[in-house]
Write a structure and sequence with these properties.
By secondary structure, the protein is mainly alpha-helical. 44% of the residues lie in helices and 11% in strands. The structure holds one RNA strand of 74 nucleotides.
RNA sequence: GGCCCCAUCGUCUAGCGGUCUAGGACGUUGCCCUCUCAAGGCAAAGGUCACGGGUUCGAAUCCCGUUGGGGCCA
């Protein structure tokens, strides 16, 4: 295959739900791949057997699907046991033989050595180092064990870990697309473990083997991995492999400046769906955390799908500093995209939140559309539209009282009579009728409009009155006026 | 504790040595539109570009230090 082919991967651990930080990392990988006509690989890093779960894996699939982040290679979401792509399997637990084989290869090269130190010994070393205010790094005690010493340790029933012998005479450096050159003095790196005493490989090792075998060209990940990178670079060198290009993107913080966590609000991708966000609004917002165009464009329209976002996205323009997640701005953006929906799209989007609403689809569509410019969240629909679906909505009397309209009694009688007379109960005709009535009664339009609005919805804020009345239909408007007349007397308002 | 990274309005950011009396967006406030609430339009407030030194004729922009924040290792 062509070596200049762009191949990126998103490699989550299935130890919990996909959160916004992970989602953004996935998004940036996806955008980069799309832009350069590359391949987006999904790999599941499930080597932490204690904390990994199938449920989390499925959650990750669902979250990515919801956001629209489809992968070209990786597990088959329909049947995770199967994989699509030439580098299967894409679950690390199914690749352990590969890691073992490569570890042996490195050991044969003399880069790895067996370490028999016990937990107690290491703990003691660590405490000692702390007391002397030295960084707690491994002493390299086992670096030059004789066969005899090894045999002795084994006879005591000790299990070896494989450590990487870090060359101390050179610094480790790598070029990062976001951060440019990053340098670590080698003496800062300890002889890290490659194979644990259980025989299991460690994170850094799996990562390097997989990224190489899967021919990953660019590793785009959160900058919490930045200090893993020199270790990985060392491994690439030891294997004689060409390292990929790295891009470490900044983290996402909560409003208080600390790492974003549940106490800051929703953080799981699926939480956003539940709360009434549109997936593309989340995508657009996430893209802007740590990335901006030269003109600070904020809305990347969807006239041609994600094309505009894909075209404008540039890894080189990503921010080095962390970004605070701002729910208010996300919510504003959600409103923008809700307003851009067609009536049909809006109905589909809002429906899951309108579980109790009984109305014919065509009518439902009209009701939902009447408040289109008002939803910030799709989940706002029920409280905005409740009066459409019930004849027993509550009246907010204090709102009506506050208007201090003279002669309400008469206004209501006239309203009922006029509505009953109106043959063509259309928006335009209703408007004409109401304006005529106001004129005839010598009242401000508002003093006729508001009472009707109040009668049909129980409150004074809502959709355009004429449209609302038309959508409700003549019968309901009249019956609601009748109900109001009865209750108004009981409430003592005239 | 060691190392690494970062630092422009409350927040997301533009800026990559002179065009910056620092631009846009969210949020806030006011006005307009208007049957209400929104939406939309317009306008305003909000930044001594973290601080202190340099370099330079000239620095938000380059260098050093300090402070603050974040990350990783344990």
């Amino acid at each position: 295959m062509a070596s200049n082919q762009v191949r990126v991967r998103f490699a989550p651990s299935p130890t919990g739900f996909l959160h916004v930080g992970g989602a953004r990392t996935a998004l940036f990988n996806f955008l980069f791949a799309k832009k350069l006509k590359g391949t987006f690989v999904l790999r599941i890093e499930d080597t932490d057997e204690m904390r990994s779960s199938d449920q989390s894996t499925l959650q990750i699939f669902e979250s990515m699907k919801w956001l629209g982040l489809s992968w070209d290679e990786g597990p088959d979401p329909e049947d995770p046991a199967k994989s699509k792509g030439p580098h299967a399997p894409y679950f690390q637990m199914q690749r352990v033989d590969l890691y073992r084989k490569h570890a042996e290869e490195l050991k044969a090269k003399g880069v790895l050595y067996e370490c028999y130190c016990s937990e107690e010994e290491l703990d003691a070393d660590r405490k000692h180092a702390m007391l002397e205010k030295r960084p707690p790094r491994y002493s390299k005690r086992c670096r030059h064990l004789t066969d005899e010493q090894k045999a002795k340790a084994q006879a005591q029933g000790r299990k070896a870990v494989y450590r990487f012998a870090v060359p101390t005479d050179q610094e480790v450096a790598f070029d990062d697309i976001v951060r440019e050159r990053v340098v670590f003095p080698a003496d800062q790196l300890e002889d890290f473990i490659v194979i644990k005493s259980s025989g299991g490989p460690t994170y850094n090792f799996c990562c390097v083997v997989d990224d190489h075998l899967m021919e990953i060209s660019h590793v785009i990940r959160g900058d919490d991995h930045i200090s893993n990178t020199p270790k990985q670079v060392l491994l690439y060198k030891a294997f004689g492999w060409q390292p990929p290009k790295f891009a470490h993107i900044s983290m996402i913080l909560g409003a208080d400046g600390s790492r974003l966590s549940k106490r800051h609000g929703a953080t799981g991708v699926m939480d956003f769906r539940e709360q009434g966000y549109l997936p593309y609004a989340v995508v657009n917002y996430l893209a802007l955390l740590g990335f901006a165009t030269t003109d600070s464009q904020d809305i990347f329209d969807t006239d041609k799908g994600w094309d505009m976002l894909v075209e404008k996205f540039e890894l080189e323009r990503c921010q080095k500093s962390p970004a605070v997640f701002d729910y208010t701005k996300l919510t504003w953006m959600n409103g923008i995209y809700i307003r851009r929906l067609s009536k049909d799209q809006l109905l589909d989007a809002v429906r899951p939140y309108l579980t109790g609403a009984a109305a014919p689809v065509s009518q439902l569509k009209e009701f939902v559309a009447l408040e289109q410019e008002k939803y910030q969240l799709l989940s706002d629909a029920p409280k905005l539209l409740d009066f459409f679906f019930t004849e027993t909505y509550a009246y907010r009397w204090e709102e009506l009282k506050a208007l201090k309209i003279e002669g309400l009694e008469q206004v209501y009688q006239e309203l009922e009579a006029e509505c009953a007379k109106l043959v063509d109960f259309s928006c335009a005709a209703i408007e004409q009728m109401l304006k005529g009535l106001a004129k005839r009664l010598g009242k401000k339009n508002a003093h006729v409009f508001h009472p009707l609005r109040f009668a049909v919805s129980g409150r004074l804020q809502g959709p355009s009155l004429f449209h609302m009345a038309e959508a409700l239909g003549k019968d309901k408007v009249i019956s609601r006026l009748k109900r109001l007349a009865l209750e108004r007397v009981a409430a003592g308002i005239s």
